[in-house]
């Protein structure tokens, strides 16, 4: 058993400083432009692909850290650079997580590389669960997948909404209901490869923040895919459905399983935004003079910064703990993954708002990045499970009671 240590190893430090360089020199200078354009920042994704940051290899390496920290360290740095661009880069990873969580090793080998493409032929992927009437309640999906035995095909119909990279992705991973009577336990995940007919983009949303990330509806209209696109395979699905029909426990629902593995990574991005705002406002408070002295000399400002720093450090500890627990196979008996995302998300909103206050009028205008960080932070209390849903998960885990 290794001694307890909070110090990063050389490998983790190398990744941290490599990603930080990219965040500082490529993302930060581009952040304002892509926020204003509200478009996928292809040139930045291309640069990330050129250096191997947007790639399957990087993701595999980051997730192979036995301590589980490399990915969350990288994500903190990326979101410190810009959260919208980070999401444009990481939307693909959500789909990859869906494939890894539910697919066979053969399916992962086939589909994961296609989610990223290559530097010469970039690809994006998207993960679609949410629907207009099924957000927090992912057990009530209306999108149907029906098996056509005569052609060995699945036929998908329905509308997904709020999908990161939705409709512009080359590969979509879609969660659909196979047996609606079984609610969440009657669902399965499907890969919809590039060039498939019957899948299209609906409305593209204009958002408050993370505007460099594309968010849109995905419409499935008699979308036919070969039988082998069912993640995990038909035999396993049939067994799972049979168990569910008998009322037996059958593990975690497809969608929930994916979200479970990704929560510390989402918390890490919130942490990156919070740290950016904290560092900026600390520097500003030392420079800005009112009443003949730097504003940091007022306790009202200095105490705000002290609290910001404390909540950021606490967020990081929760994120690292959850990432470590995931990588080392510890059971999340108190919803520790949810805690990390909940705390870091709420911290990002509070810290970025405090940063605006410290900058005064300069915090409120677009010439300065702080208002963007605040707009970017808010999504972290909403997507991948709202703050209330995280509290529900933690409350159920610690009490053993099905709190509603
Ligand atoms: C920018 C963006 C990107 C997104 N990307 C993706 C994506 O790539 N893929 C994807 O599948 N989805 C994505 N989403 C969807 C996101 O996960 C959902 O918005 C989120 O799960 C909340 O669902 P909802 O918006 O329908 O809110 P609702 O579920 O309708 O919730 C509304 C309010 O009610 C509260 N509430 C609901 N149920 C309970 C309860 N039981 N107890 C207490 N409070 C409750 C919620 O916490 C919230 O405050 C994205 C959303 C956005 C905005």
Walkthrough of the structure:
The chain is an alpha+beta fold and 404 residues long. It is 53% helix and 15% strand. The protein folds into three domains: 113 residues, Acyl-CoA dehydrogenase/oxidase, N-terminal domain (Butyryl-Coa Dehydrogenase, subunit A, domain 1); 121 residues, Butyryl-CoA Dehydrogenase, subunit A, domain 2; 146 residues, Butyryl-CoA Dehydrogenase, subunit A, domain 3, CATH 1.20.140.10. It has 13 helices and eleven strands. Strand 10 and strand 11 form a beta hairpin. It is globular and about 80 Å long. The two termini are 40 Å apart. The mean pLDDT is 95. Bound molecules: flavin-adenine dinucleotide (FAD). The site of flavin-adenine dinucleotide has 20 residues, from strand 3, strand 5 and helix 13.
How is this structure best summarized?
This protein is α+β, with helices and mostly antiparallel strands and 404 residues long. The chain is built from 13 helices and 11 strands. The chain folds into 3 domains: 113 residues, Butyryl-Coa Dehydrogenase, subunit A, domain 1 (Orthogonal Bundle), CATH 1.10.540; 121 residues, Butyryl-CoA Dehydrogenase, subunit A, domain 2, CATH 2.40.110.10; 146 residues, Butyryl-CoA Dehydrogenase, subunit A, domain 3 (Up-down Bundle).
List the helices and strands and how they pair.
Layout: H1 10-37, H2 42-50, H3 56-63, H4 69-81, H5 83-102, H6 105-116, E1 117-118, E2 121-122, E3 125-128, E4 144-148, E5 153-164, E6 171-177, E7 187-192, E8 199-204, E9 215-226, H7 234-245, H8 254-287, E10 289-290, E11 293-294, H9 299-327, H10 336-359, H11 361-364, H12 370-377, H13 387-399
Parallel strand pairs: 3-6
Antiparallel strand pairs: 1-2, 4-5, 5-9, 6-7, 8-9, 10-11
Helix pairs in contact: 1-4, 3-4, 4-5, 4-8, 5-6, 5-8, 8-9, 8-10, 8-12, 9-10, 10-12, 10-13
The structure holds flavin-adenine dinucleotide.
Flavin-adenine dinucleotide binds at residues 94, 127-130, 135-136, 162-164, 207, 215, 379, 382-384, 386, 388-389, 392.
